[in-house]
Amino acid sequence: MNAFFIAGGLLAVWAVLVALLGMRGFPGSRGAERVAIAITVVLFAGAVTSAIADQSKVGERRGPEIDKPGEGPETKQPGKATGEEGGAAPPAGSGAPAPKDEGERQDKTAPIALALSADPSGQLKFDKTTLQATVGRVTITMDNPSPVPHNVSLRGNGVDEKGKTVQGKGKSTVEADVQPGSYEFYCSVPGHEQGGMKGTLTVK
Fold it and tell me: How many structural domains compose the chain?
């Protein structure tokens, strides 16, 4: 039993009581009249207020007895776990690789940088006769501080690449994919390799 039925019942009982007393001349004085009016107003206001409050609670009393199948707030879509919005995540143990950081991917694909310099006096030689690298992309850059034109080139194991010929503080670069083994870096300007401008690149 809610508050509306209680307040409404009291109001009904009070109305009947006032009607019966009125047949006997009630209220007999102005003070009794004011008391009767005040009680009537209080009971009426209580009945109206309880009715409004009870009506506002109807929408809140949702439960298994009101919700229809598939309409409740806990309804899940078939094939989706709770909290999933944008599709299912890869199942655990599926072997799918986790996304890698962009910087990590770039580091692994960046070429290995090696440096050389031609003899500044113009002699036919590099400042190094051996270089080392690991398997992958390799870049060899040669500085040429001399006025004699030189370049850096690379050959061996299927590689045959030539850099641009430069002079007077220019830079010559050669780049290639290398596998384990030995390669020869050299200057391809005619006669320079034969004059001793060469060396060995070892890849492990």
Answer: 2
